[in-house]
Amino acid sequence: MCKQRYRAYSQYLKEKHGCKVYKLPVNLPVTCPNRDGGLGRGGCIFCGQSGAGFESLSEQMPVKIQLDKNMKYIGEKYGAKKFIAYFQNFSNTYMRPDRLEAYLYQAETPGIVEVYISTRPDCISQRHLEAAGRFSEKTGIEVTFELGLQTVNYHTLAKLNRGHSLAEFINCVLMVRGAGFGVCAHLIPDLPWDSMEDVVESAKVLSALGVGQAKLHSLYIVKGTELARLYSEGRVRLVSMEEYAQRVIAFLEHLGPDIVIQRLIGRAPEEETLTANWNTSWWKVKEYIEAQMVAMDTWQGKRFDYLGGKAVRKFL
Ligand code: SF4
After folding, report:
1. 44 CA distance to ligand 1 centroid (A)?
2. Which ligand 1 atom lies nearest to the CA of residue 31?
3. 120 lines ligand 1 (CB under 6 A)
4. Which of 12, 67, 140, 284 is at a distance of 20 to 30 A from 237, taking alpha carbons?
5. Is the CB of 44 under 6 A from ligand 1?
């Protein structure tokens, strides 16, 4: 029953591909313009040295070898047959379009049914989209872009040292969707500088833009980051697990019912963090949120009633 209260990614993939589909992380030798000085230095205040790819293989390993190794392991362990190549770490379009295209072709291997490319909203041009389009057309492999946003509150984005504001995200979604690709947006609902209103507004903006998928994770404190320094000095107060759940539920209530939820909470790299997920297993937090949704008798899209001219509906 819980699972039907929001549109879960695993179920969506099963319906789309006829079986369980596994995401395989791919580590490219890339960086990020917010780290190498292209736009800024130091990166987002929460971003560690390994970016988001703490479970990935070495970026020196060719893409095909990374995929083969992971496919063999997951295939043998779970009997999996279909996979998504996930270009996960740092900004995977921060490169020339022809280089991106070459990496995409390296992911064309039996069993790969989709490619997901994680990147920043200011790292995609029309030429990058054309490169991805050529790949998709020739191979029949669908490409989805995962864009880090974290929040629609542009004051908070500045505090996070993101190096972009909300406008770049809106522009990027319009470009990517206009080129026929899917978009997944990453958000952190428990940013201490944000209120419940910001979280609700994030859901409304994603819904209005027609984003296809959303991926949520809590704010965890990675050692050695600027956020770790602020946290250690007592200058950042993290929100409680109960408040995280309430923010996630409000987010889901205001989100369009068709938007696929990749996850409600992320898995944190324990040895690299000062604190993460309230020292609780991610699946326990997930189950807690789902139980709260049952207790509140609520669901994704319950409050999705604000688009398409709400005020003039009575005249129609
Ligand atoms: S944009 Fe992504 S990779 Fe770059 S610093 Fe921020 S979190 Fe890290």
Report:
1. 6
2. 3
3. yes
4. 284
5. yes
pLDDT in tens, 230-270: 999 999 999 999 999 999 999 999 999 999 999 999 998 88
- Ligand 1 centroid distance, CA of 306 (Å): 32
Percentage of the chain with pLDDT > 70?
97
**Could you read off the pLDDT of 53-70 as tens digits, one per residue?**
556 777 888 999 999 999
Inter-CA distances, 8 with 188, 239, 299, Å? 18, 25, 12
Ligand 1 centroid to 48 CA: how many Å? 9
Residue holding tokens 């095909």?
64
Question: What's the whole-model pTM score?
Answer: 0.95
CATH architecture, range 2-315: Alpha-Beta Horseshoe (3.80)
Spell out the domain ranges in the chain: 2-315
Ligand 1 centroid, distance to 128 Cα (angstroms) = 19
Number of C-beta neighbours around residue 45 at 10 A = 18
